[in-house]
Predict the structure.
Amino acid sequence: MAKKFDYSLDYEQLDLRKHPELYTVGRGEQGVLLVQPYKSEILPHWRFKTPAIAEESSNKIYELFLNYKKEGDFIGMDMARKFLQMGYTRARRYANHKGGRKYSKKDGSILPYQNDEVKAEAAAIFKAKWEIAKTDEDYKKMKQLHQQKFEQE
């Protein structure tokens, strides 16, 4: 069984490029806004306001994914994959809920859905790149190796 993402580590001080043994893949986007130095390298390129911005952003993040792959840096690849996934999920949230708020502050109920076509298109752009990244054969092999080496409980 794979380990859960460890939120107890001091990610602001920890360089996971130097300590890959401490990185846990986790589920979905876990740790995407924590893991350094990758967060600082990828976050400045992460945007999804319009389809054109999403296209430029997803292309740049996928380019980083490929650069990390060339360097044999699985954690970088996984973090780029997480940012692509988060581009999709956040753009979908904004497509469904103006302002990005899904739940009512008043009672916690789910707010009414809408359909913002611009944000939906931006989400689709990120989803396409995310699918390419997560199904990359080298990524899948490196993920399996990382989990076997470092994430067995």
Observations:
- The chain has a mean pLDDT of 95.
- DSSP finds five helices and no strands in the chain.
- The first helix runs from residue 38 to 42.
